[in-house]
Each structure stands twice: as structure tokens, then as C-alpha cells.
């Protein structure tokens, strides 16, 4: 077998593998989780928690914290408020995501 024929065999195999990889990328489904989470964050149940989190965030950024916003190690963080909001969003999101599983 000549060197040019060996080269042709290698190149055609490499080219075929690249085409197969591109096809696999096109077949992947879109992740709907971020969209569902955003919708759940705007529900009647989660909206008040989001408003409280936003208010604490505003106070923390301004340097004005009080007992209404959680504080950790002299650095003001709305960690507790974030956890409450994310818990609400996750409770809303999980059943919708599992309903989409095949």
C-alpha cells in the first residue's frame, strides 16, 4: 500500500468521525430548567420571597443591614433569604421537570 493511500484512509476516517460528532450535538435536547425556574420565581408563592431577597440585597449593597437581613462574619449576606427563595423555586420547578422526563 502506498503512502498516499494510507493518508487517504486516515483522512477519510477522521473526517467521518467529525461528521458523526456534529450530528450528535444537534440531537441534544434544550435544557428547560432555567426557563421553568424563572417562571416559578414569578409565581404568587415565590414573588414575596424574591421581593424580600431583593430588599436585603439592596440594603447589603448600601451597607445598611439590620435584623431583617441575615449577617455572617461581619459581612452582610442575604443567605437565609436566598435559601428561602430558592427552596420555593425548587419546589415549583421539580414536578414540572420530572413531568418532562421520558
Automatic annotation (TrEMBL):
Biased composition, class Acidic residues, residue ranges: 19-29
InterPro entries assigned to the protein according to its UniProt record, in alphabetical order: Cyt_b-c1_6 (IPR003422), Ubol_cytC_Rdtase_hinge_dom (IPR023184), Ubol_cytC_Rdtase_hinge_dom_sf (IPR036811)
UniProt-recorded name of the protein: 7404_t:CDS:1
Coiled-coil regions listed: none
Native organism: Paraglomus brasilianum
An individual GO BP term: mitochondrial electron transport, ubiquinol to cytochrome c
Subcellular location: Mitochondrion inner membrane
Membrane topology: Peripheral membrane protein
Protein family per UniProt: Belongs to the UQCRH/QCR6 family.
Keywords recorded for this protein, A-Z: Electron transport, Membrane, Mitochondrion, Mitochondrion inner membrane, Respiratory chain, Transport
One GO cellular component term noted in the UniProt record for this chain: mitochondrial inner membrane
Short name of one Pfam family: UCR_hinge
Gene3D superfamilies attached to this UniProt entry: Ubiquinol-cytochrome C reductase hinge domain (1.10.287.20)
Residue intervals of the Ubiquinol-cytochrome C reductase hinge domain: 31-102
Region (Disordered): 1-33
